[in-house]
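A quick aside before the break. I want you to see a complete sequence-to-structure record at least once, exactly as it would be stored in a machine-readable document. Don't worry about memorizing anything.
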Amino acid sequence: MTRLRWTDLLNSNRFSTSLRPPVKGRPREPDWLVKDRTELERDFDRILFSTPMRRLGDKTQVFPRERNESVRNRLTHTHEVTNLARSVANFIVHRELGKKIAEELGGDENALRRMRRDIPALLTAISAAHDLGNPPFGHQGENAIRAWIKRHENSLFDCVPSTALNEQHDDEPFSDTFRKDFLLFEGNAQTLRVVTRLQVVDDDLGLNLCYATIAALMKYTVSSDEIVPKGRNAALRKVGYFQSEKKIVETARNACGLPHGVRHPLTFIMEACDDVAYSVLDAEDAVKKQIVSFSDVLSWLRSHQASDELTRYVFEHSEFDYQRHRTAGLSPAELNDVSMQKFRVYSINAMMSAVIRAFCDNYEQIMNCAFETDLISASKAARFAEALKEFDSLHAYRNYRVRGLELEGFNVINGLMDFLWRGITEREDFSDLSSKRTTPFASYVYSRISENYRRVFEQTSLNRYRTDDPSLPIRYRELQLLTDMVSGMTDEYAVDLYNELRAYHVGASEARPAK
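That is the input. The structure line, written in tokens, reads:
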């Protein structure tokens, strides 16, 4: 039986350690320069200060293009998940379980100190990064990308000349795995690509994160051809990485001692904090937007609380405060707001307590690679979380106003992909990715694609370490540039760029070169 070891799970080596040769002539670092942060603490900083993190401020959490700043976007959601994860980490490292982990790391004061710094740092780092690859307009963004690929599937993947998209193709058709990377496009896999590839400075190592951070970030652990959508093992249900990052994944996971398909122990906590945040706080945002009232939330829970202890606890305390607030002369909006705040406090406190207990109770199974479900499902909060998710789905996600904005985003992304594809593929030399574009429109579109992404696509980084697969077809790289660009956009930037390109796509600029 394989047992995970914390000496491996907290591996703080980086790809640069083995791949970057020493740079001659580099200035000597002064003696006064303090180097007190651990490598995993530095990873959190790298993620926090990265451009994709700032872009989350204009990416949809639930409600697209939301102008009310008190309603959550991806950035505020990320901050909340990170804070919950930090609280769990601090609980673990200062209790009995923390002593057990410290013993595995050596048992001395240095091991205890390392554990108390590195586990919170690693857990907050992966929580901060967990949504960096999500496209604009929330999950509709993922759906739009998949729909565009599916609509053009034959033209994209077959070796049959096509006037629909581009007449040039690789010599061989796509493998099934390559196809599925795009047909099953997944924001979680794109997140891994963002942090390992797309933040180019002078090489192709992305943010150059520690092996432990890369491995723990992976909520799903298999490639597109290995997923088991309805299987019992939660780690196998979605695409965890694309073929372009396969070598990176294998290296990082092997360095952390993770068998194929097995999650890092801290990944379970990150996932649970994400589940707690969106199940509770999406309901709060629905009330804030006046899609539902707090009394609707109470009515929903009333039908679920009789047979579940945790639901009953939240319901009874929330209802007590609600009735008390009703006599305080508050306006309906104020009553909804204050009641929902108290509901949030009770809900998160109860759910996080359940998550901590579930992790401690299942610790041995997790370390022995025998725990295949998620922490929420294995906890006392399972039925409450399920009830909240049902409420959110029925009363928030399916609201006609939300769906109308999602449809706008869906159409914007599909239109953008049409335009961007011309800029990517309409070039004079199919094998020379940087060759001159064949139309003024294609030339302009290509110039509007991020320089970082184009550099990765053209493979012109100052220092390339070939952590990708050199056999990836050109068509694969073209499609990946397309999905990189779309996924990296904010909601407003996507709309603005779509309108800009649509305005230029008139008259002679629509024309393609004669056959």
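Two observations worth writing down. The chain has 24 helices and two strands. The mean pLDDT is 89. We'll return to this after the break.
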